[in-house]
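User: My collaborator sent over this chain with a note saying "see what the structure looks like." That's all I know about it. Can you take a look?
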Amino acid sequence: MKRIYLLTLAISLAVTNLQAQNEGLKKLDFFIGEWELTTKASRSDGSVMMGKARTKAYYILDQTAIQDDFFALDPNDNVVFRGTSIRSYNRQSGKYQIVWVMPGVNGITDISGVMSNGKLVTTGKGYDGNGEFLERFEYYNIKPDSYSFKMDRSYDGGKTWLVNFSSFDAKKVK
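Assistant: Without extra context I'll predict from the sequence alone. Here is the result:
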């Protein structure tokens, strides 16, 4: 009888934890779908490079995480760069955990975020071909069919920041 009680308790706690994770993740439902992006990247000389990209975001792992596939496009709509992020919600910390990877490119980013004042505000650290970095970025102007993104990056431990290192405006297409 004690074993049945403990098993029932363990299942109940697991279900409660999963429900809390799913409720936290639901706040990121605005990502779900297919998007066209107008991108901007700041160069070290101060100039800005305009571009376009597309993303597709969908639930994975029994709807406990969201995967977001990113494709940067050239003027002829050929893919020139790709990456993916996995987003999940950590009930204990009350934060989103996000990992960004770029297949074929030396780099990865470990990110933590919170929803605050209608924005997803994040910080992260990682590395790429230019070395180790810190990031801070946010998703804002979130609407059912659009949102905006801006990122700052530091390669010197936060002493100086490349403001608007990357940004984009997203329009939902599906």
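A starting point for your reply to your collaborator: The first strand starts at residue 33 and ends at 42.
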